[in-house]
Amino acid sequence: MKTRYWIGLVVAGGIIAGLAGYKVYVSLDPDLTCAQCHEVTSACQLWKNSAHSDVRCVDCHGTALSGGIKGLAEKTGMIYSHFTKKQTNEDVSLNEEQVLAVADRCAVCHQAEQAAWESGAHSTTYKDIFMDVEHNRMEKPYWDCFRCHGMHYDGTIHDLMSLEGKAEDWYLKNASQADRPAMTCLACHQVHAEQPQNKPYVAKNEKERAVSLTDTRSPATALYMRSEKRHLPSDKLYRTTMFDKDSVVKVSDDPNAWLCMQCHAPNNRREVGSEDDKTPTGLYEGMSCLDCHNPHSNQLKNNYRNVHLKK
């Protein structure tokens, strides 16, 4: 009996000591822990040079114990894949559920941005986008819808929806998908990106904005490309040449505007005001989207009118 008692005590003590040691381990500088044996050296370096350098890895990533049994199983699966499939960190991409969890963690610190996003059109849900009967009658949902709406969705359009019958008969196959946001923080932001702490773009004056455009540091925004499962910094995006009939329309030098144009895109002739294009014209030609719009709520910062040419 005494032997069992002491064995139980030693086992319990070992478990407590192990958990305590693990908690200390994950709180240390990753250069001394994770980056010693994992392929996270590049991500660690980006973090050190980013606006999140004062945020610990575990504050965003959690630990193997953060999500209970589910989280532990997920981390165990990662270890298994690492050794059996020889995956590296470049091969790893987040599924939609994980992206939503990251967005929730973003909101813990970025409360004002979260509130602005919730008040604007970019917080639209799958139900708002894919169950719009009037729009569906004009254009049947297809794979390219996910390029802007549902970038991180894990399946195909046929996994998401039943498209049998008429538009009014179509429905989302998974009811829990209906209220999920179709565009999250990670649609336009890359967390692991070299972007030193600085005051927000919208808070800069014109001189500071001009300097930031020629700065070698990456912009704060990046487009998530569903087909590639990776982000492309906004300053690396293609700068579209736009036309008003036969005349070339000046497009803003701001990479953030180029990001907006990836979804607010023109027709194949690149005509201003066509399709979803919002290129400023007239007196406002060459202005950035962020000169007029709050980047998260999309609301106008000033009483601008007649900025966008209507066809």
Write a structural description.
- It contains 13 helices and 6 strands.
- The longest helix is centred in the first third of the chain and has 26 residues, at 2-27.
- It is mainly α.
- The mean pLDDT is 82.
- The protein has a two-stranded antiparallel ribbon with strand order 1-2. A two-stranded antiparallel sheet has the order 3-4. Strands 5-6 form a two-stranded antiparallel sheet.
- The protein has helices at 2-27, 34-37, 41-48, 57-61, 68-84, 96-109, 111-119, 126-130, 133-138, 157-160, 206-213, 255-263, 289-292, and strands spanning 161-162, 171-172, 222-225, 230-233, 242-244, 247-249.
- Helices cover 38% and strands 6% of the residues.
- The N and C termini lie far apart (88 Å).
- The chain is globular and about 90 Å long.
- Among the domains are: 59-90, no CATH class; 118-186, no CATH class; 212-219 and 227-292, no CATH class.
- Helix 6 packs across helix 7 (111-119).
